[in-house]
Amino acid sequence: MTGESFKPNDAAFVVDPYPALAELRESAPLVWSEDFDFWLVTRHAEVLACQRDRRLGRVTGGHAAPNDLRPIKTLQTISDWTPYYDVERHSLLMLEPPEHTRIRSLVSRAFTPKRIRELRPAIEQTAETMSTSLDPSGFDLIADFAQPFSIRVIAKLLGAPLDSVDQLLAWSHAIVKMYELDPTEQQAEAAIRASGEFAEWVGELVAQRRREPTDDLITALGLAETEEGRLTLPEIVSTVILLLNAGHEATVNTMGNGMTAIVRNDSWDQVVSGAVSSEVAVEEMLRWDAPLQLFERWVLQDGFELAGQPIRAGSKLAMLFGAANRDPRVFENPYRFEVGRGDRNHITFGAGTHFCLGAPLARLELDIAVNELASRFPNLTLTSDPERVPAFVIRGYQAVNLTTET
Ligand code: HEM
User: Fold this and answer.
1) 278 lines ligand 1 (CB under 6 A)
2) Ligand 1 pocket test: which of 243, 357, 365, 393 has the largest number of ligand atoms within 8 Å of its C-beta?
3) N or C: which end of the chain has fewer CB atoms below 10 A?
């Protein structure tokens, strides 16, 4: 079996990748994709193993080099990647230990489960404010609720001014397009421009908070000292941008993908009645249709082997989360959406060094959002079939139009 059925640029694949992902997974744990020049990792055990294996990394040399950040062969036409590269090179997602450990250990103090639990009342308040403004006769769950809710939560936590959330969303959308496998030249240019503007804006905010400290994460990062000394300004700027972007994109798409699945599978009643708690429902939302479908790793050392297959140093692996989350070796009836399943073995938040720093926050936000919607809108139906954003890696809907009228 070769990876020919892996067609992330095909509209039909994007609409429903799961039959092709099942075919790939059941053919082998590791499938070579000639088109993309990487190994597809298809099964749960192997995806998990890759995430925990220190012989694999996000970048070839421990440091992000410009070539690692130019994901696409066809985009060599763009001559100046500097603003994009300047942001990405210090991103936790692009670093490996020891740089990664130094920055992550600082940031993670703000994201411990206890610190996150303390945010519950404030997040509930935000969810309530957002949901009271919804028109019960028809609203778009993405634009009218999930996006404004999630961006406000992360902006408040960081201490970013709330009147800037629309601008933050625009920058974030432009930058994350670069995580797709084949961004166009236009998308790359937009991402480069957005990175430059975003970095300048964050830089000014950090400078201002250093002059006039307030009680928020941007101030804390701005003043942070490590054993090795202060975080550098570029490191702080990259970290703030990563948190602002990662802090809402996947959460919003989990809400869209997951609520669509709940409504389509006639499972809303179970949540509304309390037969299934919102906290439990969230785990199936995360497993069923992961908002992040693919993550890459480079093989850093010779002698690496996966599922009996030796893989040369310098090769690339692409872990398929959607395939792993429906692996029958781990989940019973994986192709059935069971809102009460409550199985946390899904791979949606990753594992190992880069395990999602925001997982406790994402879980709490989703729990609160589902709970809020269930108490306000006991009847929910789709008014139209939601359309997919034309992208595979970041999987979501353009809009999810719901009504409470039957
Ligand atoms: C449902 C929502 C979310 C999902 C599915 C998700 C998923 C992920 C995954 C899979 C990774 C690992 C990437 C890799 O292995 O290369 C990751 C990393 C990360 N996530 Fe999330 N995430 C979510 C929400 C959040 C939120 C709310 C934040 C808030 C700050 C956040 C911050 C981060 C950060 C900072 C990293 C990088 C960690 C590192 O490299 O050490 N995420 N996320």
Assistant:
1) no
2) 357
3) C
